[in-house]
């Protein structure tokens, strides 16, 4: 079932042009060419026989399928011109051009692919004509660390293991580990999904936190894994993760923008009471320190206490005379 | 059973594309089953107007022509609706296929696939799976409800009004804006435009827009600049445009991100290093995150800010 009548109409108009040139086309091939499921295609084929230009005498499209191949028995019904490819709409040009320009900014894109993309973009701009104009009102830049990206990319294509020195902000430490890369993806930042041989688990690494990287000679041997569905968001806390409650004032509302959370309750002073879950509450000590007077940890107690004692220890250094040098 | 909307739209499109002379509403109503079933004239008129808008939304150029009897007729001329010749090879097709998959927003994802389908119908060769060509799987996240109305307002150059909560403000305030461009930077969307109340260019973060974005009648009052610098503005919020430098002591082995930005690093030998780092907006909050592993030496104002923040945390 098509989610959206406009998308389905748009698709059926192209389908009519496509099928006209290909009598007896296979359902599977057409679905793949159109980037849709066979069920979606079949539902289009159910609608098309109800369509036509009946003001000219009642010719409906005689299109049918046996589930394997598609036959159009009266391709003359539309007249020679009525099945010509349609121009690109402004929204279509915008969607495709903005995405193409964004992908072309990926430093890790293979050079051949980038060249093909740039050629295709220029042709599309020309074909879309005026409709391409509005695409300048939207832009997307991906970020990625060029050198690290190139090494990960190479490791994936050569199926090789990687050694990385990786920074974990939660613990403020660099760890060395060997990983078997699975894929690269970009959602704002660029990430590598990999099987981490240190933790024996799937891990996601943000490329700008890779301090050092080396290709190893060993082949990568990640276990067979189902790829995570990234549309659900990168951070997917588990139900059994411990709960953390943070109360922030108006100046700490940004926490709700940056941390996936279960709930954010409005407080009378314009602040928020945010409940979130994390496998490692200690990793939020940084947040507690950062918030200063703009917020505090309500629960768990150990986390609140560790932020307090870290602040006290830090303050002690400012009272030592040795730390006073540099002060005029 | 009511006739599906896609069927009705498709019939209207085929009628308008297939005719050489303008068709009147009366003729169209007599030709399309869904319109015959529409019941009252009012219901039909409403449906017809909406359908025409929908077809225009998907790119159809529909002309309105008045005939000699003063009756309005409609047609979609072939020459204004035909795709100009475009030749794409398999590699180019694969590249566009990858690009079309990056949107995580229904409207843009639909529009991007629609463009590909038109190109496919026009003979664009089949690509192999684009993922076999490239190792990267880029995704453009769009979680903000304000995105779609603002995208349309930017496209149509329509002024908007929305409630906006500044990062540190308790209550949102009403902003009247002439929207210019939307930009996605580090996974977040920003709007640049003319803030009518402030009489100046402003950048807004979409996640801070609360409630609905409403359109306003009328045209833009301020000229739209050729180049809009969203990123520079956002970077200065994030403290990346440092104008001064700071001297800190950092415990050996800790604070890698500080080290990677340092302009100079000196080992002190007692388990501490001394670093010179760029000092921009927000550095105090960042340094506090490192707790007892960082001691600010100078400048004095930064040192005071950090101590101040630490005291607030110590009080709990």
TrEMBL record, chain B:
PROSITE patterns: WYL. It comes from the Bacteria. Residues 244-314 form the WCX domain. Residues 146-210 form the WYL domain. PANTHER family: PROTEIN PAFB, PTHR34580. This is Helix-turn-helix transcriptional regulator. The lineage of its organism: Bacteria, Bacillati, Actinomycetota, Actinomycetes, Kitasatosporales.
């Amino acid at each position: 079932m098509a989610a959206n009548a406009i998308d389905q109409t748009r698709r059926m108009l192209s389908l009519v042009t496509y099928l006209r040139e290909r009598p007896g086309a296979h359902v599977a091939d057409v679905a793949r060419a159109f980037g849709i499921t066979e069920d979606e295609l079949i539902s289009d084929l159910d609608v098309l026989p109800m369509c036509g230009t009946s003001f000219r005498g009642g010719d409906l499209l005689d299109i049918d399928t046996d589930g394997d191949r598609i036959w159009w028995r009266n391709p003359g019904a539309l007249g020679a011109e009525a099945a010509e490819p349609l121009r690109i709409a402004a929204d279509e040009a915008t969607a495709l051009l903005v995405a193409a320009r964004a992908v072309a900014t990926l430093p890790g894109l293979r050079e051949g692919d980038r060249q093909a993309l740039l050629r295709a973009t220029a042709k599309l701009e020309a074909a879309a004509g005026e409709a391409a104009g509005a695409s300048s009102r939207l832009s997307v830049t991906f970020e990625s660390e060029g050198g690290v990206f190139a090494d990960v990319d190479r490791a994936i294509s050569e199926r090789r293991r990687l050694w990385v020195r990786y920074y974990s902000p939660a613990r403020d430490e660099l760890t060395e580990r060997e990983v078997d890369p699975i894929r690269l993806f970009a959602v704002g930042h660029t990430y590598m999904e990999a099987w981490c041989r240190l933790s024996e688990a799937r891990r996601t690494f943000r490329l700008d936190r890779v301090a050092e990287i080396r290709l190893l000679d060993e082949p990568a041997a990640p276990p067979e894994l189902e790829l995570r569905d990234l549309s659900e968001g990168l951070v997917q806390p588990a139900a059994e993760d411990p709960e953390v409650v943070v109360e922030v004032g108006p100046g700490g509302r940004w926490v709700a923008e940056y941390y996936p959370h279960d709930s954010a309750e409005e407080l009378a002073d314009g602040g928020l009471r945010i409940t979130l879950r994390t496998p490692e509450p200690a990793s939020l000590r940084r947040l507690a320190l950062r918030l200063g007077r703009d917020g505090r940890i309500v629960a768990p107690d150990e986390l609140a206490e560790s932020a307090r004692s870290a602040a006290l220890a830090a303050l002690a250094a400012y009272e030592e005379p040795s730390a006073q040098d540099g002060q005029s | 059973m009511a006739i599906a909307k896609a069927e009705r739209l498709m019939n209207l499109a085929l009628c308008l594309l297939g005719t050489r002379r303008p068709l009147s509403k009366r003729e169209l109503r007599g030709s399309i089953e869904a319109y015959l079933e529409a019941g009252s004239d009012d219901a039909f008129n409403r449906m017809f107007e909406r359908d025409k808008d929908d077809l225009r939304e998907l790119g159809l150029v529909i002309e309105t022509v008045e005939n000699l009897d003063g009756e309005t007729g409609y047609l979609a001329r072939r020459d204004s609706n035909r795709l100009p010749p475009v030749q794409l090879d398999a590699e180019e097709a694969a590249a566009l296929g990858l690009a079309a998959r990056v949107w995580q927003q229904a409207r843009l994802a639909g529009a991007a696939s629609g463009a590909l389908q038109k190109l496919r119908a026009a003979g664009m060769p089949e690509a192999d799976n684009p993922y076999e060509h490239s190792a990267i799987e880029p995704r453009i996240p769009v979680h903000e409800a304000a995105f779609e109305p603002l995208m349309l307002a930017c496209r149509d150059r329509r002024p908007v009004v929305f409630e906006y909560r500044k990062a540190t403000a308790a209550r949102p305030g009403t902003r009247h804006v002439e929207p210019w461009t939307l930009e996605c930077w580090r996974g977040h969307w920003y709007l640049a435009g003319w803030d009518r109340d402030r009489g100046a260019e402003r950048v807004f973060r979409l996640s801070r827009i609360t409630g609905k974005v409403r359109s306003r009648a009328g045209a833009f009052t301020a000229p739209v600049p050729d180049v809009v610098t969203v990123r520079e503005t956002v970077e200065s919020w994030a403290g990346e445009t440092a104008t001064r430098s700071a001297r800190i002591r950092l415990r050996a082995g800790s604070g890698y991100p500080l080290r990677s930005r340092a302009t100079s690093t000196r080992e002190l030998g007692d388990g501490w290093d001394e670093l010179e780092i760029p000092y921009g907006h927000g550095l105090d909050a960042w340094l506090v995150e490192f707790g007892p592993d960082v001691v600010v030496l100078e400048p004095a104002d930064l040192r005071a800010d950090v101590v101040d923040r630490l005291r607030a945390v110590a009080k709990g």
